[in-house]
């Protein structure tokens, strides 16, 4: 061993990439490399410098790729992947009353959630999502799926007034959450939140209980808010208050509150958002598909409100493709504001990564490629007819690249997708296991 | 040879697929097969029947695939692929004045058009588009690229008042078109149209000349109309007339007129569309990205007006992905009408195939899988985490499938893409040839 080599520090892995988009700082780096040890980012610098300073058990060279943080999908109902495409193009209440709710009523169980979440994870990891923020019944099943498949997840304990297969009422949901919290804290890839379903499905008592438990356990809150104009109108008729104002009066709004959808925002709502420091999860494709409304992203950004992007569940999107979702968000923000400078490529990438991490209180650990953060990252090959020529890699990722161009995905430094294929499971075997559920769901849906 | 075999009719190719979406009729067929001879569809029926009735030199079996017509991209400026991502997120006039027009002014030539169109074709064929409807300078170069690469194209002879590298004025454009028409008629995959650029760039004289030549030569007309509110307002100020009304007064509107964009449509415009029988090409992603406005698809469909879908050029989209474009169209139509039943999956697939074919007067030959039509078709594998489970293949194609799931593309029965790869060219060699152009364009853009 030469003295020079001896002086080098050893790391687990060095990734060299033609371009690195760390997201924070907002710089495009050329011919840089990242050193990773024990799942954390140790160094980022010009390839020569990194290769001179470190030796590694493994060196990955990505000459035609962008290296960037993995996507944080800020709103999912992962298990609903089992109901993807079951019933589309229907009026909202027909879709819910005649398809989604009857199937859920019949089948939802820990096993259903486990199976559906595994399918969702297979899709999400392959599409470059390394963390998802979930809200569904039987959260332990979702948490175990994520931990077992090596995906990071923020698991919401759902709270809802009406009886389901999961719990009898909001109190029972809160009790289930309190009971489960310590167990899920043992899972290293998992953090937790409380997830009151929506203002119209949780009465004040349940929301007060949510606030108390959230404060006691220092948990973020994840909730659908202002999804439709109907929701706001009904609340005004019933409570004489807009739903967000009611949540503010119940003292729920703060920087650990993530409001999902938010398609209806008047000036008073925007003030509440800004003053409370809450974050917004924008789900453009679900909102479009269900005709719910369109969140005013340009105005949200101008107010400095934290913005994340989510796909929502596969039953209402219908994919869990964050690259597609951030593109839709970037295009739609310009379209509805008649302003081609609104929500530019850099901001869309940031919302889909760091914005999501911050929205779920995980900005200390993920969402950007910075020293000390977890090596949750992806490589996107720009060697494809859809991304040629490359004048600007940031623009190519935001506006042209397809999920198929995502070649590598690492979570906490461990490779999960390599050359576009799952490393740890056979996708065909996953499908075979799911097929029995699919058959029963189809039968039930066709013979209610 | 047994008597039974002797009785079978011989065809070139039989394609067996798990699902067939012929588009017209609007039926989903299970386990069907299509027999193809000399580039034409000879028969479609249950696999057993087809295999009993025909022998073929080649049988392709697609057990997890949808077989459907190739997409018709109803509006492109293919050569602009060389400027993809050159300048994004800018105000419209900055983008045009400081980037697109200077680059075009410096470089546009038959060689530039040829190179840019080849790149566009490589992307479009791989994404399942089998026909594109183009409008750009030096149309012969685009036509030759398409014919040589085995893609079907409808080539518009651009007509514009102001001087360009291509022609001095509208008269010169019309003369160039008249001269070129007989030559391009020799190319079997090519048909032609006249393409007056827009109401605000062609004065009445040029439009009268366009109408005369179109009538004399029985050519369709392809034109940007009502792209922005600004265009309509300016026309009202200058001519006291909305642009579409002016075109109607000039007797240009009829079933062979394709109006592109049409984001601004009042009741009088919709009446003109309906009464004239013109077709509309909807380019949702370009319209969103440039903040141009949003075409009211639900109202257009309710009026029974022919609707096609186009990507526009790669400089303003930024991809040429028809699967993505039809999805954006389907989602956006619901979103802006607050109606989840608007523009359902079947209609979006139809607009992206048969709607496009009819819009360019080619509905007799392409756009659906019907006996006698050309075998312009694609296979989409649904064996992917994004399209599992398959309750409804039509919904999966419209709302979930990615362009990477398109495995096979045939134009006039000839295979162009197989297992996702181009059969006839090396994509890397294409990129290498283009790189010299890219370098010069980048230098020019950075040092104007």
Give the gist of this structure:
Chain A is an alpha/beta fold and 448 residues long.
Overview of the molecule:
Chains A, B: This is N-ethylammeline chlorohydrolase. Chains A, B: Keywords: Hydrolase, Metal-binding, Zinc. Chains A, B: Residues 66-415 form the Amidohydrolase-related domain. Chains A, B: It holds the Pfam family Amidohydro_1. Two copies of one chain form a homodimer. Chain A has 448 residues and is α/β, with parallel strands linked by helices. Chain A has two domains: 3-69 and 377-411, Urease, subunit C, domain 1, CATH 2.30.40; 71-359, Alpha-Beta Barrel (TIM Barrel). Chain A is 41% helix and 24% strand. Chain A contains 16 helices and 16 strands. Chain A has helices at residues 3-7, 47-53, 92-107, 110-126, 139-149, 170-184, 204-217, 229-239, 243-249, 267-276, 284-289, 297-302, 322-337, 345-359, 393-399, 427-446; strands spanning 9-20, 29-37, 40-46, 54-69, 71-76, 129-136, 152-159, 190-196, 221-225, 257-261, 279-282, 306-309, 377-381, 406-411, 414-418, 421-422. In chain A, the strands form three sheets. In chain A, strands 3-2-1-4-13-14-15-16 form an eight-stranded mixed beta sheet. Chain A has a four-stranded parallel beta sheet with strand order 5-6-7-8. Chain A has a four-stranded parallel beta sheet with strand order 9-10-11-12. In chain A, strand 1 and strand 2 form a beta hairpin. Chain A is globular and about 65 Å long. The mean pLDDT of chain A is 97. The interface between A and B is large, with 73 and 73 residues.
